[in-house]
What we know:
- This protein is α/β, with parallel strands linked by helices.
- It is 38% helix and 21% strand.
- The protein has nine helices and ten strands.
Amino acid sequence: MIHRSRFLTGLVFLLLFACLSMPVYGADEPESLFVHAGAGLKAAMLEIGDLFEEENGIAIEYNFAGAGTLITQMELSKKGDVFVSGGTPDYKVAQDKGLVIDPEYIAYHVPVIGVQAGNPLGIESIQNFTKEGIKLALGDVNATAIGKQGQKLFDKFGISEDVEKNVVVRAPTINEVVTALKLKQADASLITLDQIKGDDIESVALPDEENIALVVPIGCTTFTTKEETAQKFVDFVSSDEGKAIFKKHGFPVYPDPVYANVML
Length: 264
């Protein structure tokens, strides 16, 4: 009986020691947010995420993709805390699906024509996208804001069929459109002003009648379980501090009288 008592006592101590020795997952893990973000916003959002974590001790995990892809992922998974897209049309799609709340506004995505250095083909407007033999790289119509806006523009001028004949790349993100241009797989593309960096490609401003600038929105998802923290991040991105980072990366910040006519 004594031996049994000692055995049970030893077993209890052993179990207690084992429990105390086991790691308590989540106890010391930093708070974090999961943010769905348009691929064309990557550079600015990464820098903002680092600064937000430094100032608040809250880590930001990103899912970068074309807006159409992000909306599908959110609809299927119902996971994530914040959504930031390349333009309000895609954000409105997400809002109509009940995935996000009313947004704050950060900056402008200003479409331009991207061309090879020196503009060897003398491209002056999207009307030149119909030239025979020109090779075009464009964003996917269903996945990217720039793809959707470009298609609206081509339809407006009745040149969609002629433009499509010259498309050699339809990419799911604007980053891949830019890469195709830089690798000289294409002569021209429709991209955004913030993507023009370095000397390998140049921009041609769209004429006023072809202006299709977009406002960049950000907001919390309707299924976040971290409403207060998610809203804190949204407020930070749309603050003067956050907008300054977007400006650093080539985005005109919201509001700007130059783009007063841009639809929200």
